[in-house]
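Hey, sorry to bother you again with one of my protein questions. I've been puzzling over a protein and I'd love to understand its fold better. Take your time with it, there's no hurry, and the full record follows here:
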Amino acid sequence: MGSLNGQVIWITGASSGIGEALVYNLAHQGARLILSARRKEEMERVKGNCPEYAQPNIRILPLDLSESSTLPLMAAAATQFFGHVDILINNGGISQRSMAKDTVLDVDRRLMEVDYFGTIALTKGLIPHFIQRKQGHFVVISSVMGMIGAPNRSGYAAAKHAIHGFFDSVRAELWKESKDIHVTIVCPGWISTNLARHALTASGAELNDEDKRNSQGKTPEALAVKIVSAIKKKKEEVYFGGFQEITSIYLKRFVPGIFSKIVRKVKIDRIASQK
C-alpha cells in the first residue's frame, strides 16, 4: 500500500462524525489536510485536537455544499493552499427520516442539492486540475442506501444512487485521461454519528432525535481506518457495516425479489414518521 505522508487531502464534512475521524487518522499519517464544512469554529476545534506537529499542515476552508454555484471557486481556492490537491474526500452531506408520501418536494430538492449537486460541483471543479497533473483521487462517502432503497429514506437513497451513477461514469471517463486518476466509492451502513439527529423530516425540519440503529452502529474511527486502507489500495468500491446492512446489498444484487419482500417489513422509526 502507498504512503499518504505529504499527500494533500481535502475533506468535506470535516467538523464532525466520519470527517472528523478521518482528519485525526490522516493527520497522524503525515498528510497535509484541507478541512471544509460550514462551521469554522468546529473545524478549528478539530484542528486543535490534532497532534501539534501536524497542525502547521492543516488549512481550513469553510463552505456550504448547498451553494453549488460557489463551489468551483472553492476548488480553485483549495489548490492554492499547498499548490495542488492529491485527494478529495467528498464526505459532507445530510440524511432523511420521512415517508415519501408525507415529504414536501423542497426536502427532496435539498437532499439532492447537498448530497448530489454539492458533491459533483466540487468534483467538477477539481477534474481539470487532476487532468493537468495526470493524477488524483476522488473518494466519495456514499451509503448502503446508494445500493438499495428502504422505507423512510426515499430522497436520501435517490441522491446516493445518483452519486454512484455519476462517479462510475467519471471513473470510466478519466481513465482515458490518465490511469493515475482514481475513484473510490465507500458505502457505510449504520455509523454512530450525529447524522440522524440532523436528518431532514417530512417538513424539512431537523429530526433532532437519536436513531437507535445509528447510535448502536460501527464507530466512525473504525470506518476511517477502512477508508484510509481503501484509498491506499485504490479500491473502486468498499462496503462497511454490520451483517444486516452488508447482506442487504448482496440480496438486492442477486435475489432482488427476496430483498423486496424483506425490506417492505423494515420497522419505521415512530418519531420520524410523525414529523
Observations:
- Residues 96 and 200 are 5 Å apart (CA to CA).
- The radius of gyration is 18 Å.
